[in-house]
Amino acid sequence: MTAAVLALLGFAAGFALLFQGGVREAHWHVCQAIIGISALVAFAAWRHHVRPSRFDRRVTWLFAGVAFYITLQAVPLPTKLVAILSPARAELSAALAIAGPPPAWITLSADPSATIAMSLRWLSAGVLFLLSRAAALRLGRDTWWPVAPVIALAVLEAGIGIVQLVFGAPVQGTSGNRNHFAASLNLALPFALAVGASGAFAPALGAALLLGGAAALSLSRMGFLVVVLCCGIAGWRLVRHRFSPAILALLAAGLIPAAFAIAPGKLIERFSGKDDRLTLWAETMSLVLDYPLFGCGLGAFEPAFQHYKRMAPDRTADFAHNDFLQLLAELGLAGFGLLAAAFYFLLRPAFRNREGGWLGTARISALIGAALHSFTDYPLYIPAHLLLFAWVVGVSSLRPERPFHSDHSAPPVE
How many folded domains does the chain comprise? Predict the structure, then answer.
């Protein structure tokens, strides 16, 4: 039954991935329905076998805290109270009330409907996180099977990208965006490297080559850098006991120049081109300073940001192209701090454990790569990538029991 749950979750994430990242509501509703069915199947199969640990109870409280905070943003509150908690939000409401007196009740969110929609998206990702974590616990903390669907979906997406290359089209998979395409591939790349290098399934090295090559050929700058990072971490894992620290430092220093030497020429040109992200980030900081404590509302960045946007005034800006900065603007210091604390607690096992073998190395590489992509883009606002990220976080929140070796290649029989 665990395999059935993983298959359903893989179908949900794959549906979103193959249909332009799941950004259209009709496609996303299908994904939500599949995740709901997965949860029902898991509950029916596991309800008599689940014994919540102290960690599970803490995770439940963290989820409840984040959910309560987001709900608070979307619930109407007295205008006088909102004027104290978020003066800029009260001023915006008064400015919009042109035809009459300002309303007596308003929300902290500048767009409560968008906040509710985004909270439901996060809820679906949270359910997938819990199910992937539970599946990993049942199959074994140190087996690669719980991440097999993530690798398979990424390989399929990379294959589509290579076909696009052959026919002279931009390499961006089904997402329609090179950066989102590379971000999804780079979530799976470290695990493919780990599975192949550990000897658990040697052909996975071919999958890793496909994933890394497709990400680089997409001409995504951060995608290329994360590929180099993942290969560098895997290489360090292989040779760390064979060379002195000085030799390792020299090898690391030569890795990036060597990577750029073999990079496509068009990718090098993109590194030297002009980037407007710094201007966008500076303007977003103005929004952050006006909504410092409670933010402008989860998912409400676009309507709240228009007042602060100066660059390209004839165009709208849906995203800040920096997940950390956008979440800070939408959630405020209170919500962002709560979310950061939740992630710190969830991912602490992955970074504190030094005996996790190849799987532990893959977890760390995937999380670092995801953070780097989020620093220059908005992958967490793309449903497909959000689901894959929640899957990786679910698996990474476990503390490995022993090194990852090839004798764990087969799942236990239930």
Answer: 1
